[in-house]
Amino acid sequence: MAVVYLGLGSNLGNREANLHRAIALMEERIGTLLKLSSMIETEPEGFCSEHCFLNAAAAFTTRLAPDALLDETQSIERELGRTQKSHDGIHYDRTIDIDLLLYYVEGSSVQLSTPRLKLPHPRMMERDFVLVPLREILDPALCPEL
Fold first, then answer.
1. Catalytic one among 29, 67, 93, 97?
2. Is the full-model pTM beyond 0.85?
3. Residues of 32-56 as b/e, b for ≥16 C-beta within 10 angstroms?
4. pLDDT tens digits, residue range 35-69?
5. H or E segment and range at residue 57
6. 8 A C-beta contact, residue 119 and residue 69
7. Is 71 an active-site residue?
8. How far apart are the first and last CA of the chain?
9. Catalytic-residue membership of 67
């Protein structure tokens, strides 16, 4: 059994409902929700948009390996209306964004670097919209650098 920390964001439609729907689908497909942070409103970062984001972080237990977990979160994104993924520094408005931030097995952080997935998330330390909610739910003993 692993514990995964996820970053969530939405800046289109009913943002709060989008986040809650994503969480419900993850509970069905990924595992048990352990903790959910407060939701914070943030300005878009890295691109121009008139739509502010609602961001949160969630911790789940899961039996899924990181690649299978990524497949499920991307499937949920598509199901909830996400049509374009960010790539090469180009970002888009989105109904939902689910990022795998940290993945722990028996209390140890999994380090992974593949073309599809990097763990821990390589840019999370640069993003307050990720760090603020993550710090709210993360056990400081797991990741003291946060």
1. 97
2. yes
3. eeeebbebbebebeeeebeeebbbb
4. 999 999 988 877 677 899 999 999 999 999 999 99
5. strand 53-62
6. no
7. no
8. 23
9. no
